[in-house]
Amino acid sequence: MLVSGYPTLTGYDEFFDSGGSPRLTTRSISDKILGLGETELRRRKLALDVDIQRMGVTFTVYESKSNIDRTWPLDIIPRVISSHEWARAAQGLEQRLTALNLFIGDLYGPQHCIRDGVFPRWLLESSRRYAPYCQGVKPKFGIWAHISGTDLVRGADGALAVLEDNLRIPSGVSYMLKNRHLTKRIFPELFADQQIQPVNGYISRLYDLLISLAPEEESSPCVVLLTPGVFNSAYFEHAYLAQQMGINLVEGQDLVVLDDDRVYMKTILGLSRVDVIYRRIDDDFLDPEIGNPASLLGCRGLIRAWRKGNVAIVNAPGAGVADDKLVYSYVPDLIRYYLDQDPILQNVPTLRLTDEQVRLEVVANIHNYVVKPVNEAGGYGVVVGDRADPGDLERCRIAIMDDPRNFVAQPIVSLSTAPTLCDGGVEPRHMDLRPFVLSGRSQYVTRGGLTRVAMRKGSLVVNSSQGGGSKDTWMFAMTLRQRAVWRPRPRRLPQNRDSPSMAHSAKCRRTKAWAGRKPCFSVAKQKTSSGWVGTWNEPKTSAEPPSLTPSSAWTCPNRWRRVSSRSLL
Amino acid sequence: MAPSFEPLLALTLDEEPEANASIDRDQVLLVLLHGAHDGSVRSLIESARENLRVSRAIVPEETWTSINEAHEALASADPLRRGQPLLAQLESVGRTCQLISAQITDTMTRDFAYAFLDVGRYLERANMLLRILQMSQRMHSFDAQLLFDDVRFMGVLQCLGAQQMFRRRYQGRTSAKPVLTFLLKDADFPRSLAHCLVRIDRAFSTLPASGSLRQQTEELMAIGLPRDPAQPDAYAEHLLEALAELSDATTRSYFQPEPTPSLLRFTAQG
Predict the structure, then answer these.
(1) Is A303 at the interface with chain B, CB within 8 A?
(2) In this prediction, does ipTM exceed 0.90?
(3) Three-state helix/strand/coil letters over A280-337
C-alpha cells in the first residue's frame, strides 16, 4: 500500500480517519486506487497529463507572462464526499442563494433590510460593487446571481463551512466537468464497479436556465457567451461552455446596441437580436457608458438595454454587491431575516475590521489570522498570517489601518487534506470545494463541485490563479434504502418578489408548522412507500452519514405530512 | 546552397534565401520545419492552433485535440537530430493535416462557418498549386537534370500527390501540356485549380451577398492555359495575384464592414 508513509495529521483528512484507516466513504476505493502502487499510479498520472495537454485544458496564470497554455493541474487521486452529507450541504447552498438573491433584490429595491437594522446603510454606501444604476430593476424570477460558486471548506472538526460566496462570474465548472471526463479515462474500472454520481447534467441545466431568462417568450431565444478573449485566464472555460451548449461565443466588438435599446449580434446576414448574454466580464468593463469608459471588452449601451428589460444578463449587473467578504459576514443574519430559518451551512468566523477593537486585536496578532481584501477574487491580496514574511505583515497592518472597510480577517482554518500524488510520493495536501448553484425558476446544485488543492506542502492557498491544482470529486449514489427516505426535490424560490417583507411573511406562514425544528433532517419524517416510517438520526459530525432508525409505531397525520414535505421544497 | 533547394526555400520564406553552397538537405528540412519565419511548418501549426482556439465553439472538438497533438509533437521534437527524425516529423505533420481535414469534412455541419472554411481551404490549395508550378520552372533553370520535361513534371505531380491520378487520365509520356491541363483544368481532380475554383464558387453560393465574389471566381475559371506550358511562371503569378484579391475581397465583404445604416434599419425592424 502506498500510504504506509502517509504523515499523521493533526487536521481532518478526507480519506483516512485519525487511526489511519480509510473512512467509510473511501473504503470501497482505497485499495483500488492506492493499492495500485506508486509505479502504476505514476504511469496513469502520465497518461492523464498527456490527455490534458492533448485536449488543451488550460488555465492561464497571469504571473506567467504571455503563456496562455498553462495546462490544468489535476491530481489523480479523487476526493470522495458522502452523498448524505452532500444532500444536506446542497440544501444549505440553496438556502444561502435564496437569501442572497432576496437580499440583492432588496438592496436594489425597497431596502427593508436596512430599514429593519439587519444590514447597515454605511456598508452599502461604501461598497465598491454596489451599482446605483440597478436601483429599481426587477430581473426575471427576482434572481440576480443566477450562477454562483460558493467555496466550502472543512475545518478540523470535519464540518463543511462556507469560506466565501462568488456571485459575479465564478469560474471552474468546466474544469469540474473535464476532471470527471479525464478521470473516467484513467480509472475506467472504477466507474464500471462503483455508482459514482454523474456531474454532466450541469450543461443542460445551465442552458435551460439561460433560455428561461429570455425577456420575451420565444421558442428559440438567442443566447451568447460574452468573453473578454483568449488572454483571459478562464478562456478555456468560455469556449468549452459555448461549445457544449451550442451557443455563440462572442466578444464585445461582436455586439451592438441600437437606438431601440436592444442588443444585436453582428452576423454575415446582418444584425441578429440577442436575448440572453452569459457574460464572463466584470461589471466595470461591461459597458463603457456606465463603467470603465476605456473598456473595449464590453459593448456600449448594454446596461441601458438590460435596464429596459430587452436583454437578460447573467449574472445580473450589480449582483457583486453581495460578493463582498464583509457582506459575507452578514449572510447568516440575512438567512434568518429573509427566510426565518437557521443557516444550514455555517460561515467561517469572520472579523469585521471596521470595529476598532477588533481591528486593534487583529493588527496586534496578525500572525493568527488570514487577512483578505473584501473585493478581490482568485486569492489575490490574501495574507496568511503564520506564513507571510514580516514585510508583508507590516504592509498588511498599514493597509488595514488605512482602509479597514477593505479587509476582513478570519482565524487560520486548517483546511482538510487528502492524499495527493506529489513528487515525493502520496502526501496530504489542503483543499476546498467549489460547488456551483444555478438559480432561476428553480435551483440546481452540482453534485459535489470543483475540488481545489494547494499543491505546495503546507500551503492553504488553493486558488487556481495562485497555482493551485484540482481533484475530481466523487460521490457514490445512495443505496435504495437511503434513497427511500431522503427525497430532496428542487427548491422553488418564493414567487412574490415585489416586497421581501411579503415574501418573508409568506415563508413564515408556510414554515410555522415546523418552526422550532431543524429545517433539514429533523423534518424528514415521512411515510415511505413500503409502509414503514423512518427518522434520521443526526450524525455527530456532518461528515459522517446519518443512520436510519425504522419506527413502525410512528404515524404521521396527513395534514402534517403535507406541510413538512412542502417545506422541503 | 545546392541550387535546387533555393526555390524550395523561396516557397516558404518571406525573402529570397541567401545562396549558400554548403547547406544540405537536413538543414533545409530544419528551416522548413522549425524556422522562425512565418512560412515554417511550426509557425503554420501555431497559427492554425490560434485560429482554432478562437473558433473552438464551432469546429469539431477532436480538431482541437489533433492540432494540440501536432503542436506538442513539434514543440517537443529535437530539431538537432538529423536525418530520419526530421523526415518523420514532416510526415507526422502531414498525417495530422489529413486527419484534421477528414475530421472537419466528416463531422462538421455545412453551415456558414463551413462555407468560409471551404473558401479558405481551396484558396490555400490553389495558391500552393500555383507556387509549386512556379517553383518547378525556377528549379528548371538551376538543375540540368530537370531539363527533361518528364522528370520535371513528374516531380510536380509527386509534390501534389497527383501522379497516380494523372496516369489514370493520361497515359504515356509526362509532358508539360497534359500535366498543366490536368492540374489547371481538370475539375474532377480535387487538387486541380479548376476543382478549387468550383468549390470556392459553391461555398460562395451558400453565403449571402456573394454576387461580386462569385463573379470574380467565374472570371478566374475562364482563364485558359498558359501560352507556353513549360513556362508557367508569369501565368501563375497573375493567378496568384487574382487569388489574393479574391481573398481580400472576401474579408472585406464579411469580416470588416461596420453595419451600414440601411442594414441596421432593416434588421432592427425585422
Answers:
(1) no
(2) no
(3) CCCHHHHCCCCCCCCCCCCCCCHHHHHHCCCCEEECCCCHHHHCCHHHHCCHHHHHHH
